[in-house]
């Protein structure tokens, strides 16, 4: 019984940190044309591979993960998600360390600054200090995860 719980806990235990894009403002067209608005807000955060970027918006927006060239050109690619009435969801940085580029593909939102380049660093630890679970399930898995780490430490 205890063993089964521990095995479950190990499989459930993912030390994921959620980064909300744009902090309080969410993923939207910056109020004025501010190239680099999202790049600046991402620049001072140390974002490790394996974590999740959380995109939240009201109104009509989309997000697409693109190449540097598509980011530079605001290419009208097929987005990963597009909504006209708001949405929130996560994007897992599963490609390892390196640059990740995101744009909104609606109208000229990207040209107006709704684009972001993130320099993702290699995973260094299993610390989950800034964990913020998005749901009850997340809270449960945090508890299980914390318990697993507790067991491992003893
Ligand atoms: C979306 O609108 C709601 C209600 O006005 C607001 O509380 C929330 O902060 C908004 N979210 C974003 C990402 O702008
Ligand atoms: C946008 O630009 C206008 C005019 O330059 C300025 O008055 C306003 O404060 C700016 N808004 C933001 C959020 O930067
Ligand atoms: C990021 O850090 C630099 C240097 O410390 C600072 O000048 C800049 O204002 C910071 N940017 C943000 C968005 O906090
Ligand atoms: C990303 O960050 C690493 C470590 O700080 C740095 O060595 C690298 O040059 C950065 N890459 C880009 C494209 O800025």
UniProtKB/TrEMBL annotation:
Boundaries of every Phytocyanin domain copy: 17-122
Keywords: Signal
Stored InterPro entries: Cupredoxin, Phytocyanin-like, Phytocyanin_dom
Signal sequence interval, chain numbering: 1-15
SUPFAM superfamilies noted in UniProt: Cupredoxins (SSF49503)
UniProt protein name: Stellacyanin-like
